[in-house]
Specification:
Order of helices and strands: HEEEEEEEEEE
Radius of gyration: 20 Å
Structural class: alpha+beta
Number of strands: 10
CATH superfamily: PCu(A)C copper chaperone
CATH architecture: Sandwich
Bound molecules: copper (II) ion
CATH class: Mainly Beta
CATH topology: Immunoglobulin-like
Shape: elongated
Strand content: over 45%
Number of helices: 1
Length: 159
């Protein structure tokens, strides 16, 4: 009986230690990726979609952005732009890779986050929240300004 008790306690401790290790891993990879700048394009109220453009600096090992969660639109999709038969087309993609010690830069002529089904018009000067999800399970909340500008410097450094 006593032996069983000790065994159970050991197992519980093992589980606690494992979860602490998992938490440490996701916290450290979170700190490796930093928002440099970005914005969400302001759209006239009649347009239901918009896009988010930002730069992410990766100070750690290669990581993939696998999704974006937003509350202000029905869906956020990762899009890439490619040329096909002389036509420039947008395609949904499953991830954006950020190689070790590089910066991923989204732009309207390349990779971007498509925001579909805006729940209310995005007004220039507002700020919106996006939750970035990475392939290691970590998440990075970012706040972006709504702007008509090409690339508004927002300086939301996550130190
Ligand atoms: Cu798009």
């Amino acid at each position: 009986m006593r032996l069983n008790g000790v065994y159970a306690l050991k197992n519980i401790l093992k589980k606690v230690v494992n979860s602490v290790i998992l938490m440490t891993i996701s916290a450290s990879s979170l700190a490796n990726v930093m928002l440099v700048d970005g914005y969400v394009r302001a759209m006239p109220p009649s347009v239901p979609n918009s896009a988010a453009y930002f730069s992410l600096m990766n100070h750690g090992p290669s990581i993939k952005l696998i999704g974006v969660d937003v509350a202000f639109a029905n869906e956020a999709q990762l899009h890439t732009v490619l040329e096909e038969d002389g036509m420039v087309k947008m395609r949904q993609t499953s991830s954006f890779e950020i190689a070790k010690d590089t910066t991923l830069t989204l732009s309207d002529s390349g990779q971007h986050v498509m925001l579909l089904g805006l729940k209310k018009p995005l007004v220039a000067g507002d700020s919106v929240e996006l939750m970035l999800r990475f392939d290691d399970g970590s998440q990075l909340p970012v706040s972006l300004m709504v702007s008509k500008q090409e690339m508004a410097k927002t300086h939301h450094h996550q130190h």
